[in-house]
Amino acid sequence: MSDELARDDHWQRLDPRMLLVHPIRELVRFLPVLIGIFVAGTAAGGGDAPWHVVGVGVPVGLGVLRYLTTSFRITAGRVELRRGLLNRHVLSTRLDRVRTVDLTSSPIHRVLGLTTVRIGTGTSSTDEDDRLDLDGLPIGRARDLRLALLHVAPGTDTAAPEAPQERVVVRFDPSWLRFAPFTSSGLVIAAAAIGATSQGVNALGGWDRINLGGVVDTTSRLSPWVALPLGIVVFVVLVSLLSVGGYVVTNYGFTLSHAAGAWHLRRGLLTTRETSLDDERVAGVSVCEPLGLRAVGGGRVAAIVTGLDRKQQGSSVLVPPAPRDVVREVARQVIGRTAPIDAPLVGHGPRARTRRYSRALLPALALVAVAGVLVATADAPWWLLIVSLAAPALAVPLAADRAAGLGHTLVDGYVVAQSGSLNRHRRALATEDVIGWNFRATWFQRRAGLTSLVATTAGGDQAVPLLDVPEGVAVDLAEAALPDLVAQFRVSRGDGPPADAAPAGPSRTPRR
Fold first, then answer.
1. Which residues sit opposite 12 in a β-bridge?
2. Contact residues for 459 (Cβ-Cβ < 8 A; gap 6+)
3. Is the pLDDT of residue 505 over 60?
4. Where does residue 434 rank: exposed (0-12), middle (13-18), buried (19+ CB within 10 A)?
């Protein structure tokens, strides 16, 4: 066992400086109750001063107890964490189950030189009590422990690892800030800004100051020809500033590097986060190019990591919104191949393209029909029909973009699938990490001779879908990727497997 793991083979508490952190956290958690106690005491003329002391003492005492009742050890090939006084909770997992190691430092942690070590083991539990978090350890010791945890596997030499030679792949570039307003978080901020602005204008009586009758008004009411452009400019500036601010707080100082058989990510302005992904757990990459980012030449990339549950997907982001060339170059380096990222895709044929148009146009035309009925029979305003015509006008280019982006290929040992328009993904998954195939077809797909082929895996979203693939092509692809898995189910018409035939299976053990 390495020196770093050997030093932790007995039960021990976390760093004593956490005696300053835990009480502060408990005080924040009890803040509404404390405010109520102080307000009640003030209303009573200050006679309840002892209750003020009790109100503060209880959360402080809970914070101290949290420290005193938490301990950990790493021994006999396992990492164990126990906590709790009345309700004792012990977490234990084998070291070879470690998928990722995150080091997260809040502002108060950074002031004290501490960090939280979060050990990702691929558990499907969503309960916070089931997370292996060592909160907190000195930063230097935490980094040594991370290096040791990521290099423990059955049958391997667990001697102290040598100092890693770090190779920096990409660093944060201030020019990336131009992509912030075009991300999904930018859209969320925009929606929130619209609601807040509308409420603020209404509270100040701003809507009453807009003159809907013309440009000039002697009552000093604002013309809509002035108010609308001014509002748009203010809104765009506000959303851009908020988006850029959120991007900086999350991704400032972003660095992706590779050292000692693992990918290391560092990012964060106020709360810093360091994530390490073991090479052996990286099953592929997912290049995401939402419509907004594609319009300005941007995208982002994440790793498909085996054993990483969906709540931990933020840990696998390899590059935040950045130029497309940077994103694709990082994807190539992570998988060590260029073809899965650059190779042309095989189209899914005219029937698949037809489904893209029908699924986009039919709801849009239905909306127009409903608007027409309302205008004709329910005295709805005529402009409702005019507005509804925008739906099919937008549906046509959306369907064309979805059809153009649909495709797949099998190259260099990777299954590559691409689909989507508003949120386009190109996923490259190593065939050795495919643990099964699912063929799914709706009634409409069966009528068109299409199926959705889904490669199941233990990483990322647990599946990589290939949408609307011709049935014959889907079977051929699945067999070419994993012949031993599919051949047992593919028999000639009129034939069947021998009565004593044993089911065949994949000739390799998938990553856990």
1. 72
2. 281, 283, 284, 304, 305, 306, 307, 308, 429, 433, 511
3. no
4. buried
pLDDT digits over 155-212, tens only?
A: 444 444 555 578 899 999 999 999 988 887 666 666 666 666 666 656 655 555 555 4
pLDDT in tens, 404-439: 999 999 999 999 999 999 899 999 999 999 988 999
Q: Which of 353, 371, 449, 472 is nearest to 407 (CA)?
A: 353
Q: Are strands 436-440 and 450-456 parallel, antiparallel or unpaired?
A: antiparallel
Nearest to 71 by CA among 130, 28, 10: 10
Higher pLDDT: 218 or 340? It is 340
Residues in the chain: 512
What distance in Å separates the CA atoms of residue 27 and residue 399, rounded to the nearest whole number?
Answer: 53
C-alpha distances (whole Å) from 324 to each of 29, 107, 299, 404 are 42, 33, 5, 18
Strand order in the sheet with 450-456: 436-440, 450-456, 463-470
Q: Which tens digit of pLDDT belongs to each residue from 281-334? A: 889 999 999 998 999 999 999 999 876 655 555 567 899 999 999 999 999 999
CA dihedral 217, 220, 221, 223 (to 10 degrees): 60
**Rg (the chain; Cα; Å):** 29
Please give the average per-residue pLDDT across 244-248, as a whole number.
89
Q: Is the pLDDT of residue 218 over 50?
A: no
Cβ contact 460:305 at 8 Å: yes
Helical spans, DSSP H, in 278-389:
291-295, 324-335, 339-342, 349-377, 383-388
Q: Give the strand pairing for 414-419 and 71-75.
A: unpaired
